[in-house]
Write a structure and sequence with these properties.
Elements: H1 17-28, H2 42-57, H3 69-79, H4 84-97, H5 101-105, H6 109-116, H7 123-138, H8 147-151, H9 158-169, H10 178-187, H11 197-210, H12 216-229, H13 248-252, E1 268-278, H14 294-297, E2 305-307, H15 312-324, E3 326-327, E4 334-335, E5 339-343, E6 346-356, H16 381-394, E7 405-406
Parallel strand pairs: 1-6
Antiparallel strand pairs: 1-2, 3-7, 4-6, 5-6
Helix pairs in contact: 1-11, 2-12, 3-4, 3-9, 9-12, 10-11, 10-12
Bound molecules: iron/sulfur cluster.
């Protein structure tokens, strides 16, 4: 079924047996159709149908209103592992502060992290800054247009390089991410673990073969858009799909079953005990990369914390004694509501303790903001969650009267 007459004229029914064959052959063995000049005649029709659908139905997103490589690169980095709706406000406010490559290249890391705070996966922001400085120094402040130069930049892999170069410079490089792989797997009714290296390479070959070489930027975005809005992981909307006629999974009635689910390893469970030290003026202590906890927060400002596989309060008290010479007893530690936080393969259970102190420890490279009022300090959403819980508790009428003191 074609969605609308304007985009998908029902008279233009074309058979997609060849498309299916391209996918199937490309995915099973080296394909003769991959040779230049041997594109089967149905493929141009397939491309036209998808591109027409994209032109008519694409979402109006801020990074689609520009050809500026800097802005396109920024959007691609922000969109990694992150939903479009979450990215839009960050993208816009980041560009207000860092409107071009040179403003980013000159920025301090703390300022960049501060504008990234809440978006997660902070190594992206640090790599973005490193790459901007490299682009400024070596490429005259313009994102390089050569594939090999782009791939040498920090934080740029095959997907990101292909996305930026095709969209900004119309380079004929096909993208392959999870969305596109799912679409290809369904079009060709491909079984197996798509992330298995051999199969992934074959999918890359198929993606490259199908690429509309005269409009690679739109083509890549169209494939991603199809995966993001129509060919959804669960319950694909086949009735609205512009290339449904070409879909082998649909023809076989197995669209819902593909791609086959991967055997995922269970997320690593981590308990993190955090100390919310609170002085009489309402100030708290934030540190960076203290003890063994830094890796989880990627050099953002955070409450002193420690991984605590067993008795969290005991370990946290020992940790505070070691790093701040504070003597804390179990009575002085008010256990707050546990929060959950997930970072890639780690499921983190945050166990915060509110500890009222007469004065905060004086240590180098620490910050002492008012609890929950962190201003421009780069803090993660996990830290904000803990601060919210602690603030709510601290506003309740006091039931505790004990205060911890430095030794
Ligand atoms: Fe995906 Fe369905 Fe379209 Fe096939 S017909 S590509 S399964 S949305």
């Amino acid at each position: 079924m074609w969605a609308t007459a304007s985009v998908h004229d029902s008279r233009r029914k074309f058979r997609c047996a060849t498309i299916r064959r391209v996918s199937a052959v490309s995915l099973s063995a080296s394909s003769p159709v991959a040779s230049p000049g041997r594109t089967p005649p149905q493929i141009p029709k397939f491309r036209r149908a998808l591109l027409a659908w994209f032109a008519a139905r694409k979402r109006d997103l801020p990074w689609r209103r520009t050809k500026d490589p800097y802005r396109i690169w920024l959007s691609e980095i922000m969109l990694q592992q992150t939903r479009v709706a979450a990215v839009v406000p960050y993208y816009e406010s980041f560009l207000l502060r860092f409107p071009d490559m040179s403003s980013l290249a000159r920025a301090r890391e703390e300022a960049v992290l501060s504008h990234w705070a809440g978006l997660g996966y902070y190594s992206r922001a640090r790599n973005l800054l490193r790459a901007a400085r490299e682009i400024d120094a070596r490429h005259g402040g313009r994102f390089p247009s050569k594939h090999e130069d782009a791939l040498r930049l920090p934080g740029i892999g095959r997907y990101t390089a292909a996305a930026v170069l095709s969209i900004a410079y119309e380079k004929p490089l096909a993208v392959l991410d999870g969305n596109v792989a799912r679409v290809l797997a369904r079009l060709g009714a491909v079984r197996g673990d798509l992330r298995a290296p051999a199969l992934w390479r074959q999918l890359e070959g198929t993606a490259q073969e199908l690429l509309a070489r005269n409009s690679p930027g739109d083509w890549n975005q169209a494939m991603m858009e199809l995966g993001a809005t129509i060919c959804l992981p669960k319950s694909p909307k086949c009735a609205e799909c512009p290339v449904a006629k070409c879909c082998q999974a649909r023809a076989l009635g197995v669209a819902d079953l593909l791609p086959e689910s991967r055997k995922k390893s269970a997320p690593l469970q981590i308990t993190l005990a955090a100390a919310v030290l609170l002085d009489p003026r309402g100030r708290t202590l934030l540190v960076r990369r203290t003890g063994r906890d830094g890796a989880l927060f990627s050099r953002m400002w955070q409450f002193p914390a420690i991984e605590a596989p067993a008795d969290a309060s005991l370990l946290l008290a020992r940790h505070l004694k070691e790093i701040f010479a504070m003597k804390i007893t179990a009575k002085e530690m008010i256990r707050l509501k546990t929060a959950r936080h997930t970072v890639t393969f780690r499921a983190i259970q945050l166990q915060p303790f509110l500890i009222r102190v007469e004065r905060l420890p004086r240590i180098a490279d620490a910050r002492t903001p008012l609890l929950g009022r962190f201003g421009k300090l780069p803090v993660s959403s996990a830290t904000r969650k803990i601060a919210g819980t602690a603030t709510a508790y601290s506003l309740k009428p006091r039931q505790d009267s004990t205060k911890a003191r430095p030794l």
